[in-house]
């Protein structure tokens, strides 16, 4: 089978590709090819596998060609992130709405030409939720909570969920939208997402670097490890339509923790000196965005698919440390 | 002040224009000009008023010019209807999504150039609601019911609600989305909306013509008279942002009645011979669409604005009969 991963050079996309290569199969079928479409070049370690093909450039520029190419499955992860979309409104519309529409229309074009509908998993986000004066947000959002997005990014994600549901209803694709919780710990540099600090306050101290936390320790948030997130995307892909249940987006599992609990977990795993590298300096722009996010989430439909969150945030930190094997710089703070 | 009505040659748009001309003011300001943008020519009776200017053509073709024109207020009513969108997927996307986006971007362009944000009322629809396997629909939908649209038309309306909420959050407009209930009794010919028969089964018998009801008498639906609908749009325009409450779409009031109750009201107002002109012949396509619509609606936020539904369906029929004064053909069945 042939798979397309948009955003395939990103953190989640790369890990998904690596996991799929290791499995060798998806939904019981042999994986022959995985195309990674991304603005950035794909990771060298992935390109070393002959099953990987990389295409570099904005997603929008690829979609015309996709009308003439057969894919069995698509993981649509490409997205401008929340911070970027707040700063550049047009960039957000183009990267998140126009690109998704062009991708869906390419898949529809193939069905109109007689092809079987492709299966598509869309990475939506917990950022669809927000408080509106007319619709108070519950402390813990669920699969059936009314999304009233308070960022452009959240709006884009929710609009794409609805587009995908309707294209699916019409038989143009077999689409499933899964709402990712905040993926922590991301490696590398901050990425412009307003949620970036949730990784930074773990990653930087472990590397021996001071990290600024732009919100207070009382802030609570639903999070998930990279590996659980990737496993969730694969499980949503492999679910039967009946098991997925309807065409409405589904929350992926989360562990709901406060920044203070994250700090306690950091100290538990890496010691008090590492914890002490986190400084609290409020950033009104970031804090304002985060204040509109839910403090926790529930994922009943995902649980029915057998998906579970990490048992503790310390386990998430331990996963990150294991991922850093062979990169002593990344764990310099623990030395 | 200068007002734009998209869909201004349509039934609701024309009635809104006539009502505004009669009032002479909106939100306490003198109305100097009302521009009616529509694919169809504006009604002659409206064009006779010097305050009316008509522009004929697809909305999308007008939007570039709208970047260079100041409007204080916009009523965005233009839309391809549900039946059309199910038959022609591209037409629906173009007429409902692309046109709305172009309109919003024209208004945003003006704000970026230093203008005050225009106030915009968007006519969304009760068609945003539908049952999804993952999210059962309540018998009576409310302002906070999670919309899971089961038609492309309903999806388009809901997506536009979210676009308008986000453009409003960013200060590009002062947008308010109001969900219209099924407007009954529409005059003239059936219009391609799946809900068209709700008017036909009253209008045709009153004109002495047999009408086919494509669904059973037990089917219940939230309806509103044309005048209450227009009054609702004006009230939503005139509400303060605080009174409107948030940026989430609001249901307009409805009277929730079954087809059987509509028939009883028809007999009450026009007699048994008129009622006997309605024949029940199930149409699977229409019945299938209608089966996914809510059987009734509640409008708590609209009620807080002082808006009320008609007291009885017989009153809605009487309003239609009064509107037909001077058109004896339209009431030939009662002769």
- Lateral arrangement of strands in the main beta sheet of chain A: 5-4-1-6-7-9-13
The shape of chain A is globular
Number of helices of chain A: 14
- What's the CATH architecture of the largest domain in chain A? 3-Layer(aba) Sandwich
Distance between the termini of chain A: 45 Å
Count of the domains of chain A: 2
Please tag this protein with its features:
335 residues; three-stranded mixed β-sheet; seven-stranded parallel β-sheet; 2 domains; Rossmann fold; homodimer; alpha/beta; UDP-galactose 4-epimerase, domain 1; 14 helices
Task: Describe it.
Chain A has helices spanning 11-23, 44-47, 59-66, 82-87, 89-112, 152-169, 197-206, 226-238, 241-244, 259-270, 272-275, 284-291, 300-304, 313-323, and strands spanning 2-6, 25-26, 29-30, 33-38, 52-56, 73-76, 119-125, 140-141, 174-180, 182-183, 211-213, 220-224, 250-251, 255-258, 278-280, 296-297. Chain A is of the alpha/beta class and 335 residues long. Chain A has 2 domains: 2-180 and 226-251, 3-Layer(aba) Sandwich (Rossmann fold); 194-221 and 254-296 and 311-334, UDP-galactose 4-epimerase, domain 1, CATH 3.90.25. In chain A, α5 packs parallel to α6 (152-169). The model of chain A has no long low-confidence stretch (mean pLDDT 95). Chain A binds chain B through residues 89, 93, 101, 108, 132-135, 143-146, 148-150, 152, 155, 158-159, 162-163, 165-166, 169-170, 244-248, 250, 301, and chain B through 89, 93, 101, 108, 132-135, 143-146, 148-150, 152, 155, 158-159, 162-163, 165-166, 169-170, 244-248, 250, 301.
